[in-house]
Amino acid sequence: MFSYDKKYSSHSAVFGENPEKILVDHFKKIENSKPVLDIGAGQGRHALFLAENGYAVEALEPSEVGIKQMEQVSSEKSLPLFLTHADIKTFEAKADAYSAVLLFGILQVLPREEIEDLLQSIKKWTSLGSMIFVIAFSTEEPSYAKHKQDDKEVGKHSYLDAKGFLRTYLEPNEILQLFADYEVVHHDEHLTEAHHHGDGNIHRHAVIEAVFRVQ
After folding, report:
1. Sequence-ordered list of residues with C-beta below 8 angstroms from that of 105, at least 6 positions apart, any chain
2. Residue-wise over 168-190: b if at least 16 C-beta within 10 A, else e?
């Protein structure tokens, strides 16, 4: 599996300092009676944002560097952030149910079978009214054709390169099928503005944004 330790060590905000707009726009809809689970929390821009707004958050992150970076900020600010250094395959939920689950950038780095397993697990980890926040990449992504041409196909629209970097894409509107049992609070698919991550190259993404509620 691809490790982000090197990237996170070289830059304090590889994916930016601010939380995604859909979280800022919709986080107040999250019930504050149960913790939020941030899967693949990275360097903490979403988990820390919610914790700073009074939500208890469990941040699941496989990168040791990412965990330490979140721990430092959380400790300095005395935030209600609970850190779990593990990957999604070994994770065991600590709460009976979570008020929200954040899936920002996680679906595109999982093989198809693990996405299916994760969706089944989320049903166990949530309860009526819980919210699911998703950002994923679609097959309209500019880099999709290159991955399809150069890398090993390991599943539907899922490709693995020689360095062990996996990228999985969803078809347009496929997210609505994956979460067909949920209420759709927000759904949008678009091409982002040109940007870069850390010191990386300037590029654009075809993103899928969605917010669902357990009903």
Report:
1. 15, 40, 42, 135, 136
2. bbbeeebbeebbeebeeeebebe
pLDDT at 175: 99
CATH fold, domain 5-213, is Rossmann fold (3.40.50)
The token pair that represents 162 in the structure block:
């020689």
Give DSSP secondary structure letters for 23-45: HHHHGGGS-SSS-EEEET-TTSH
pLDDT at 204: 80
Non-local (6+) Cβ contacts of 57 within 8 A are: 35, 36, 37, 38, 47, 50, 51, 80, 81, 82
Residue (of 113, 108, 107, 114) closest to 132 by Cα position: 107
Has residue 200 got a pLDDT over 70? no
Domain ranges of the chain: 5-213
| Residue 123 CB partners (closer than 8 Å, separation 6+) | none
